[in-house]
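Re-run requested by the PI after the first attempt was lost when the workstation crashed. Everything re-entered from the original request form. Ligand of interest: PMV.
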Amino acid sequence: MAHAPGKIILAGEHFVVLGAPGVAMAINLHSWVRVRPKNSPGVNVDADIPLRFISGEDRNPVFPNPPGLRPLQLAAEATLNHIKSKSSGLSVSVECEIPVAAGLGSSASTTVAIIAAVARSQGVELDRRQIFKLAFVPENFLHGKSSGVDQATCTYGGMIQFTRPSSIRTLQLKKSPVILVCDTGIHHATKTLVGAVIEKSQRERMEFHDHLAEVREISRGVVRALRNGDDEDLGKLMYQNHELLRKIGVSHPRLDQLVNAAKRAGALGAKMTGAGGGGCMIVLCHSNKARDTIARILRRGGATPYKISMDTKGVQSQTC
Ligand code: PMV
């Protein structure tokens, strides 16, 4: 068995694909994977995931491996190849409490948990670096061009600074930020959004040169604010990052409304998180009490709030 956390991005989504550093935090919403041997050859995947949000199909409990589960099957197959397993067949079951296609890393979380669990089922304990690298197979399949920030965060846990292709720095925080996640309920396709930003960056080279410089500054500032426990600064940088993401066209009117509502409700900072086009936004709050109040206000505005905290462990596996 293995489990892995989901994630939020505090700074740098989309620009991390273009080479800027991103800052991301693992959160206490998880996916769980159980692997069992089976008598027939090949890998069967069964997942408690609403596939219509990913690929237009619904979960089909009768036939194993509907096409929407292909990335999860790829994760298992890549792991078996990597460890040169002679396994005749495996059955992989996935449960996921992370909202799907919402920018919270549900795909990265499930794939790193599958990689760890499949290796463990063959008597191999992969180190985190190997799990991170193997996760590019399903993540690139799903996202087109994945920076690696999602699987790095879900694998290592905690708060990390990530720079392509594989620089992962765990940050020591003065204190954990009090964060509220709000789901708009509008589901997005990361692949389409990432592809559109890459194309735009090629068409608008001058503008993106400036945007990249701004994101580098924002990410550096966010790291500094987290190390110093400076919530005021962190909040301002989050608003600034949201504005930039809105400018390049990956936000959504609903996200903008929620960011403004959070600001009016006294949030220190708020921004969309992940690929955008809907999905989730994150809100930095003064205190747990302020978070309760802001959560109530945003729920009345139609969003689904999650009072998350940081997961510090990352992916964990065990034999049972
Ligand atoms: O799949 P999401 O919504 O968690 O977004 C991932 C973050 C991006 O920067 C948009 C893509 C990437 O691979 O870095």
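Saved to the shared folder this time. The longest strand covers residues 22-37.
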